Amino acid sequence: MERGSKKDMSKYVMVGIKKHIKEYVMITIGYVIVALAVKFFLEPNKIAGGGVMGIAIIINHLIPSISVGTLMLIMNIVLFIVGFAAIGGRFGAKTIYASLGLSGLISLLDKYISPEAALTHDLLLATLFGTFLSGIGMAIVFNENASTGGTDILAKIINKFVHLDIGKSLLIVDFVIALAAGFTFSPEIGMYGLLSVVLNGITIDNVIEGMNIAKAVVIMSSKNDLINKYIIEELDRSCTIFEGKGAYSGKKIDVLYTILGRKEFIKLKNYIKEIDKKAFISVSEAHEVLGEGFKDILED
């Protein structure tokens, strides 16, 4: 192998390592946020808004000697075993890490912090803040193609044997857990649990969408060569050049099309202002971008 090829391979390996490190750092941040939401808002107020943590909160009320974190750890392990047997091992290392990391952290918090610790005992505030925080944490984890709870596995099992969509299956599982909380604690807490299920889904969807929004930019300028060079060399992005024709002038013109992150677009806009104040720029939001330089189309 030539020296250049070895150097390229080494660079490719380093990029891959950095990418995986970043993914696991983000997953860790995500499940830490979820753990804090559970410990200081949801668990002490008995708000079981679905998921393994909802089941754990209900069982912990019936068997107080076993902490919520320990119950989550046990259930996640059992669900992974059932999942391997029923649907195969299509979970991925990141999902196993996130699920066991979350339950392990909550178990650690339960050991050193009182189970009754809460930042508020107002059920509405606890539901809103707990669900909002856990939704943000889950969205961060989901955005890295991982998952935080074993009820996803139950949903996949239902999907396999009943042929119901995974999204609907998961919603059914979470609603059943919230209803169980209503029978276990009180109808009021059960209704807050149902509210938590709905708000959690909305929060996750909106946070993920916000994290992945990019700018789709169309540029027409007499300095397209300089702009193209700036996008490639300074922003480390690429662009597509279309040949256009002005409807009024009849003149041919090159049209640049590129997709950039927010910060990259600001840099590009400022650069274009400097070199061509008569440039025409059209900007729209791309809510999800897959491919080179952005999120991989296929992830493990």
TrEMBL record:
Transmembrane segments: 21-42, 62-88, 95-113, 119-142, 162-183
Record's bilayer topology term: Multi-pass membrane protein
Subcellular location: Cell membrane
Family annotation (CDD domains): YitT_C (cd16380)
GO CC terms of this entry: plasma membrane
DUF2179 domain: residues covered: 237-291
Main location: membrane
Keyword annotations: Cell membrane, Membrane, Transmembrane, Transmembrane helix
InterPro entries linked: DUF2179 (IPR019264), N-reg_PII/ATP_PRibTrfase_C (IPR015867), UPF0750_membrane (IPR051461), YitT (IPR003740)
Designated name of the protein: DUF2179 domain-containing protein
Organism in which the protein naturally occurs: Clostridium colicanis DSM 13634
